[in-house]
Amino acid sequence: MTAQTDTTGPVTTVFKVTGMSCGHCEGAVSGEISQISGVSSVTAVAKTGEVTVVSATPLDDEAVRTAVDEAGFELAGRA
């Protein structure tokens, strides 16, 4: 009999968000996504439109889309 070891760790996902143009935009998107359960860090970069999210488990794209919508922007998908 072999024992299975759970080797799961943090999951990093990069999303593309359209419409961000400044630091305030980055903060709004980061703030909304940070409220999703399991998210430990969010880094949004307006210049590239990329939002890097570190979470305990893979995120549901619809949860991220809802958070980005709440911030007033549009989720274009995964980078």
Structure description:
- It comes from Streptomyces iakyrus.
- Residues 11-76 form the HMA domain.
- This is Heavy-metal-associated domain-containing protein.
- Pfam families: HMA.
- With 79 residues, this protein is of the alpha+beta class.
- It has helices at 23-34, 61-71, and strands at residues 11-18, 39-45, 50-55, 74-78.
- It has a four-stranded antiparallel β-sheet with strand order 2-3-1-4.
- Strand 2 (39-45) and strand 3 (50-55) form a beta hairpin.
- Helix 1 crosses helix 2.
- The protein is globular.
List keywords for this structure.
79 residues; 4 strands; alpha+beta; Heavy-metal-associated domain-containing protein; four-stranded antiparallel β-sheet; 29% helix; HMA_dom_sf; HMA_dom
Chart the SSEs and their pairings.
Elements: E1 11-18, H1 23-34, E2 39-45, E3 50-55, H2 61-71, E4 74-78
Antiparallel strand pairs: 1-3, 1-4, 2-3
Mean pLDDT: 92
Strand content is 25-35%
Radius of gyration using CA atoms only: 14 Å
User: Any low-confidence stretches, pLDDT <50, length ≥5?
Assistant: 1-5
**Helical stretch tally:** 2
**DSSP, total strands:** 4
Q: How much helicity do the residues have?
A: 25-40%
Q: Which strand order does the major sheet show?
A: 2-3-1-4
Largest sheet: 4 strands, antiparallel
Return the string of H and E elements: EHEEHE
* Structural shape: globular
Oligomer: single chain
